[in-house]
Design brief:
Layout: H1 9-15, E1 18-21, E2 40-43, H2 56-61, E3 63-66, H3 69-75, H4 77-84, E4 93-96, H5 97-101, E5 115-118, H6 123-141
Parallel strand pairs: 1-2, 2-5, 3-4, 3-5
């Protein structure tokens, strides 16, 4: 899948189908008013309560999925700020990554739905990535 960095964030958000943000920002970088319907946003930075990559408006507009609720509600500044400010409640998080992968939750419901995946990192994600790398390394030797 081709990926491109963008020099003009506003223009990039207006055109993107998928936005991946991996920063240590303490102020929102991705604003809900700039994200178009149908966009998926990955927020994989901002892994402490003091950090945030998106504003409350994005989370309020979006269906939110997390790697784990326990980690997200303890560490994800994006979510914690939005909850503390009253923009969303804890129930706004629709599912965990494991629920999506196991098919216990369908994920996106409509083509114009904005979805957000918020990750603070888990050992399970690291293990899956390591298994994938190992499997590819072994298959390339065969």
């Amino acid at each position: 899948m081709p990926a491109e960095p963008c020099a003009d964030l506003g223009a990039g958000l207006a055109e993107a189908d998928i936005v991946t943000c991996a920063t240590t920002a303490r102020e929102p970088v991705v604003r809900g008013a700039r994200v178009r319907p149908g966009t998926h946003v990955d927020l994989v930075g901002a892994f402490t309560p003091e950090m945030r990559e998106c504003d409350d408006a994005l989370l309020a507009l979006a269906s939110v999925f997390v790697d784990t609720r326990a980690g997200a509600f303890r560490e994800a500044g994006d979510l914690l700020h939005a909850i503390d400010g009253g923009a969303i409640g804890r129930e706004h998080v629709r599912a965990e990554l494991a629920e999506l992968c196991a098919g216990r939750h369908a994920g996106r419901r409509t083509t114009d739905e904005i979805t957000v995946f918020k990750s603070v990192g888990t050992a399970l994600e690291d293990l899956c990535a390591a298994r994938l790398v190992y499997a590819r390394a072994v298959s390339s030797r065969e």
